[in-house]
Amino acid sequence: MKRWFIGLLVLPLAINTAQAASAMDDCILSKIATSDDSVTVGNIRDICRGEIAAEKPAILPDDAAASLTINNQPVDDVPMADEQIDTIETADGSALTRRLVLEKSQSNNPFVFLPHRPNYFIFSNNMASPNLAPFDAADPDGDNSFQPWESKFQISLKLPVARGLFGGRADAFIAYTNRSFWQMFNRDNSAAFRDSNHEPEAWLSFANDSEIFGFKNSLINVGINHHSNGQSGALSRSWNRVFAEAVMEKGNFYFSLRPWWRVPESDSSDDNPDIEKYMGNFDFTSVYKYGDHSFDLMLRNNLRSDNKGAVQLGWSFPLYKNFRGYVQWFNGYGESLIDYDHRTNSIGLGIQFSDWL
Question: Which residues pair with 349 in a beta bridge?
Answer without folding.
Answer: 123, 327
